[in-house]
Amino acid sequence: MKNSAVCLTFDKNVFQRRNSKRWREEFIKAGLFICASVSVLTTFAIVWILVSEAGAFFQDVSVIDFLFGTQWTPLLEPRSFGVLPLVCGTLLIVVGTALIALPVGLATAIYLSEYASSNIRSILKPILEILAGIPTVVYGYFALTFITPLLREVFSEVQIFNAASASIVVGIMVLPMVASLCDDTLRAVPDSLRQGAYAVGATPCEVTLGVVVPSSLSGIMAAFVLAISRAIGETMAVTLAAGASPNMTMDPFVAIQTMTAYIVQVSLGDTPAGGTAYQTIFAVSALLFVITLCMNIFSKILLRRFREVYE
Amino acid sequence: MNANPIANILSEKKKEQEGKIVLETRDIKISYNGEPAVKNVSISIPEHEITAIIGPSGCGKSTLLRSFNRMNDFVPGASLQGQVLYRGIDLYGKDVDPVEVRRKIGMVFQKPNPFPKSIFENVAWGPLINGYQKDIYERVEKSLQAAALWGEVKDRLNSSAMTLSGGQQQRLCIARALAMEPEIILMDEPCSALDPGSTAHIEDLMFELKQKYTLVIVTHNMQQASRVSKFTAFFDAGNLVEFGETQNIFTRPKHNRTEDYVTGRFG
Amino acid sequence: MISRNLTNRYFIARTFHWFCFAVAWIGVLILAILLFHVTREGIQWLDLQFLSDFPSRFPAKAGIHSALFGTLWLIGLTALFSVPIGIGSGIYLEEFARKNRMSRFIDLNISNLAGVPSIVYGMLGLVIFVRWFGLNQSVLAGSMTMNLLILPVIIISTREALRGVPNTIRQAAFALGATRWQTVYSHVLPAALPGILTGIILALSRAIGETAPLIMIGALTYVAFVPEGPMDDFTALPIQIFNWASRPQQEFHELAAAGILVLLFVLLLMNSIAVIIRHRLEKRSR
Q1: Do B102 and C173 touch (CB under 8 A)?
Q2: Residue B189 is assigned to a structural domain of this protein
């Protein structure tokens, strides 16, 4: 009895790890965890700062006046804090972007996934990636120095700063993202669906438009929503090309100001920090953050619905 | 008699254990997310023999095998009730570190999975990360010889393991497991991805290995089980139906279900 | 009747095919036009003097020296922090964290952060690094802001690269009695390295081109010196380009184009290095 008890204890140590090895593993794991928590802390920081700074702003200006007012003159007397002109400006850009990027992006994706050979894919996809990698300030320059003069030759009433050329250029910027996401979505549709349609004698056009695209609708919509979200957040192109005049208009040929361009304008200017005028940038940032967050979550829900069908 | 009392006790214990059970399970039940995969299994694996586990697909053989070296810990939702004893120590006890368990109980997988590194690095990695201080080249050579691969690779130890054939890769995986000098080697359908020639090589290897190690192999190839193993356990739908000497299982099975399986009526 | 209908359908099918074909190459066409326009406008200003001069009120004397070095400083400091933190986070989240509701929440969190407009990050940098930490308009503040901006990108691509490593490798390593970190460090990470590297280069390329966050933290647009330490004021290539493009004079627009050429060259260089390194790594593991 006594013998076996001693042996059991001795043998049991066989399966216990040396302390030094265990501590090293735990130390490394803790270090990695700290790295991972940086991103969580970032979100908390964003929310905290937006809430507290915007909160301070809303002590002086009522939320209703802010969200529904149609006059935006926070830096000049008489001061007015209705954000709708900025929202309208952003909306105008978004509409223009959508008109360009969505159809062109979808058609490009259809070509890539349904028609193009793998050789062509290997040329076209990298080119689209290059297009996506060009800095936004370059697009702003392009809008200002190429697109706007071009538009002015065709339509004489186009102003130097206008929403149209900015939205064209943002559309180009967003195009690769739409094309790439839609391409992934279309390729995820199982081939058996296509084969079935061909087997009843449909042409490629009918297969694509009648079967493949409808089955990937949620995924395509997710791509659209993401593209719009990106257009909402775009800053440099609209700052350079669309102007700095808050304007409640749907005319694409006049100068406007988007939410993002306004924030840049204040940052570049001499508005003293701490005043209500300065606080406006936090209120507008908060609005921007909430809008893009909602759109991103919406697109994720759409993507999940698409995956549920096929996985 | 040795003056050291502990050495005496150890050598007596060793004599006791010669020809004895090295691994046993007591009434274990393994479930995945509540769904039982292995139910009420009590099995004893004898030392220095080859024990085969056979049965139709999905009957829980691999799950049982993986419970011996705590590889089921990596499957989310897996839980085990009962005891798995290695020389009397419960492998699922509180103080037991699964990492150390796997040093003593090695595993070879169904599809050969060498690391995308050189042949030498494949075999040397295990001992090195576990703090091996002595001559690593000797250990690598010994392991490759024990796996009957040394002759074929001794001139190209630094070339990539991915350049080997399927059968050679599997023998490399065996050498890799042997380099840890385990007591027990678990093999999960080790030949099912190989051609008949390589399979024969590995079966010969198993006979040599059992002199130093204990082997437990899972196989769905009945002929292999009858060729190679001394003891066989037949599993069906998570239950241990019958366990005994291989001869008896195949010629005089006690249960109808066993007889149906070994005569090919199902599975 | 049937044959006429069929002819119509084939006609539509072929038209549709050519339509998609034409549209797909619009992207290429636009890229070509853009590059052509920028080159035509800017090439005349691109010379050694341009690279070594500081910005000036006089177009003839203006150069991009301070902006170029500001960008280099910025990228260096940003890479120093974001690469280890990003890879470390990716490794923790993919290999160590248990898959439960908390980890799903963190996933959601990171992909949301990836979609936040860059100007919000600028605001974050303004409050945290410029005000709370008191770093003012230094390169350090700029790079810390950039860190936060590109961190989600690095994390997401690191995780994808790690996911691409077959699980059989991990199983083999565990079966030999390796701990999780030993497995990741010796086998998973080397195999995922090409993908991780691509993600890092993508993220850093994005950081090079970002303007809005730097404007918000107050990076000056008229800087006539090169930063000598992390606490110095600075400017960067995109800011200089923005500055020149916002002026009404034609010469400054052309200077902006020259600056763009320099910026695009830097990006091209970075991506080429990445492709080469990635090629080497993939060859080694074969």
Answers
A1: no
A2: yes
Residue ranges of chain A with per-residue pLDDT less than 50: 1-12
User: Does A50 reside within a domain?
Assistant: no
Distance from CA of A28 to the nearest CA of B (A): 16
Residue B250 pLDDT level (bands cut at 50, 70, 90)? confident
Asked whether residue B11 is domain-assigned, the answer is no
- Any residues with CB less than 8 A from the CB of C70 and at least 6 apart, and which? C139, C219, C223, C226, C227, C234, C235, C236, C237
Residue C276's pLDDT band (boundaries 50, 70, 90)? confident
Where are any strands of DSSP class E within B92-238? 105-108, 184-188, 214-218, 231-236
Q: Please, which chains are in contact with C (at least 3 CB pairs closer than 8 A)? A: A, B
A17 within some domain = no
Task: Determine the CATH number of domain C50-284.
Answer: 1.10.3720.10
User: Which residues of chain A neighbour B101 with C-beta distances below 8 Å?
Assistant: 15
pLDDT for residue A17: 61
The pair of structure tokens assigned to B112 is: 């050969």
In a domain, A57, yes or no: no
CA distances, A124 to each of A113, A131, A213, A219, B74 (Å): 12, 11, 21, 22, 42
CA pair distance A223, A262, nearest whole angstrom = 27
Q: What is the pLDDT of residues C120-177, one digit of tens each?
A: 999 999 999 888 888 878 888 899 999 999 999 999 999 999 999 999 999 999 999 8
Q: Does any domain span residue B3?
A: no
Number of domains observed in the structure of chain B: 1
What digits encode the pLDDT tens for the residues A207-217? Answer: 888 888 888 88
Yes or no, beta carbons of A39 and C179 under 8 Å apart? no
Domain extent, residue B89, equals 21-262
Structural domains of chain A, count? 1
Nearest to B100 among C171, C175, C177 (CB): C177
Q: pLDDT-based confidence at B187, cuts 50/70/90?
A: very high
Is B195 in the A-facing interface, judged by CB distances under 8 Å?
no
CATH of the domain at A184: 1.10.3720.10
Nearest 10 degrees: Cα torsion B84, B90, B91, B95: 160
Taking the C-alpha atoms of residue C78 and residue C147, their distance in angstroms, rounded to an integer, is 6
CB of B233 closer than 8 Å to CB of B51: yes
Question: What pLDDT shows up at residue A7?
Answer: 33
We report the CATH number of the domain holding residue B224 as: 3.40.50.300
Partner-chain contact B113 C286, CB within 8 Å? no
Looking from the CA of C77 toward its CB, the CA atoms found within 13 Å total 22
Closest CB from B10, B12, B89 relative to A15: B89
Q: Does residue A266 lie in a domain region?
A: yes
pLDDT of B92-107, one tens digit each? Answer: 988 888 888 999 999 9
Domain ranges of chain C: 2-45, 50-284
Residue B243 lies in a domain: yes
Give B11 or C6, the one with higher predicted confidence. C6
* pLDDT at position C226: 79
Confidence band for B255, pLDDT divided at 50, 70 and 90: confident
Choose from C100, C171, C176, C182 for mutation: most chain B CBs within 10 A.
Answer: C176
Q: How far apart are CA C191 and CA C232, in angstroms?
A: 39
Out of C172, C174, C177, the one facing B115 most closely (by C-beta) is C172
Contact call for B177 and C179, based on CB within 8 A: no
Find which of A7, A11, A26 to mutate to test the B interface (most B CBs within 10 Å of its CB).
A7
